[in-house]
Amino acid sequence: MDADALAAMTPGRPVGVAIVDDHPVVIDGVRAWLATEPRLTVLATGDDPDEVLRAAPEADVVLLDLRLHGRVVLDKLAELSAAGRRVVVYSEHSDPQTMLAALDAGAVAFLAKHEGREHCVATVLNAASDRPYVAPALAGAIVGDSRPDRPVLSDQEREALLLWFQSMSKASVARRMRISEHTVKQYVDRARIKYTRAGRPAATKAALLARAIEDGLIRPEEIGIYRSQASTDWPTP
Amino acid sequence: MSAEPGIARPGATAIPAPRTAGVADGVDAGRAAAAVARISDRGARVVAVTIALVWQLAIGLPAVLAAWSELAAPLVVAGGWLLVTAVGVLAGVRLLHHKPLPAPPLAGLLLAVDVVVFAAVGRPHLFGPANWVWGTLAWFFVVILWGRPVRWLLALLVAHASIALAAVALYDANSAADLARSAMALYGTSSLPAAVFAGATALATLSRSRAATAATTNAVVAEREAAERARLERRERLALVSGAAGDVLTELAQGRADPADPEVQRRCVHAAGRLRRLIAESDDVPHPLLHELRAAADLAERNGLPIDMVTVGTPPPLPARIRRSLADPLTATLADARDWARLTVVAGPDEVVVGLVTPDRPGLGDTGPPPEDGDGQVEILDERDGKIRWTQTRWRR
Fold this sequence. Notes:
The structure holds two protein chains of two kinds. Chain A has eleven helices and seven strands. Chain A is of the alpha/beta class. In chain A, helix 4 (about 95-105) links the parallel strand 6 (about 85-90) and strand 7 (about 110). The longest helix of chain A is centred in the C-terminal third of the chain and has 14 residues, at about 180-195. Chain A is globular, with a radius of gyration of 18 Å. Chain B folds into two domains: about 20-215, no CATH class; about 260-395, 2-Layer Sandwich (Heat Shock Protein 90), CATH 3.30.565. Classes of the chains: A alpha/beta, B alpha+beta. The interface of A and B includes residues 146, 151 and 152 of A.
């Protein structure tokens, strides 16, 4: 779990969470996980994102099941993200394509359902303060990303992601790489931040990037704008 | 933009490398031999067409023009010449493009021209060069009959000779000298085309059969090589199997090993894992490495170990030796594993990393991974940090 996430939180006011899932039993399960953390409070639940957010417009984080009533709701995810909603996607679809598509659409984080319990609280707390949290399944998806327009990761970032995916223990990764656990987290989070430039722009991505720059996790020039360098040589029309 | 050329290749499909490369060599050799045969035949075609047309233009035409005023029907002779030349050009073009020729009508046409020219040339030029059909026609026979049996050409030459002799008889040129000249002319103008035609036919047949023989020989060689390779692979696998299970089974059979001994149990589990993987190795599946790892995971699961196998990406086609080096160390670790295991594969076109994480526990036999590795192409790592045991194999292109 990650104590850094608390830094930006208003003391006294817990993070409001809305849960959108079409299986009541899953809602109850997630609610039970979040109940173990006093800094979190569940404001509304339901199977329709619009209704849930009408009931709790002040929710800081939306936990969204990517498949609602048999339909993959990437479009809804993009809409919410564009509107600045911090959406944490959780899904039983943990194939890399789906995860990367969710990031592209603007999800703040992605949780595979099977890794929910361990990482759910940390993810929501980080999301509330616009900080990344990369669970192992997502680390695997990023390290295996072979799309031609994928962000460029450093060797250290790739290695940290790979080992985190393999071991699910940052302490073990730190020992393996002979660096501190904090640095492991930095490498992993930095790789994640680079993905804020992939896919369409979204308010949540901008917020993640801004917070990362503010935290000193990444320098603006490191993230770069993915435009061909050759274009600057072209004569201006 | 991401510009790592090696990694930026999405969608690599894994197709197992062909086990019998020799077969492809055999087919190629056969094809090459057939190509040689085709090229040499083409050379002969060019020669035949050239001789026919050059003879027609360089010898036939000047002679006709020189004797123009003395010919019985010069326009008919010239018309026949034109017709035969046209037939020759047409046939030559089709021949060089390997297109079939309608031989019987063309042969009929040539023989008709033969008759007409003999009739139109007149007695004075019967044996003269202006009677161009004597010398040239046989070459046109060769062109239109190319690739057909020699007897067709002989039949046409006999017909040509009959027409000539009939004409000689009808012109009443029955003197011994005239008959001798006819015989000489027929022999002289027929023997060379016949020889060229027969020679070319024989060469074509010969090279075709050579090509076929070469292809057959190569196919046989390739098949034998493939069989030999399969036999070696089988023997190699058998050796691996006996290496994997032979010792512990022997010891159990001889009573030297106690089935209740945890170490013996561990060796048995390990041997079973290797056997299961070796069996999976000979299966013909799209992604052999994943298949072999899944087989190992299945077995571990059936032995009561909850195992989580997660795969990212598609491994490129890898030889069995490399796959073995990637999977075997993990099979060894799986035999020791208790409580849970996480098996991960991250694969790209140039790198495959297989990781196995299991809880570390005191008293774990420090057996380590097997020393074999694919000529240093596979990096093996086996670490314990008190919390987890981490075995990783990594192949880089």
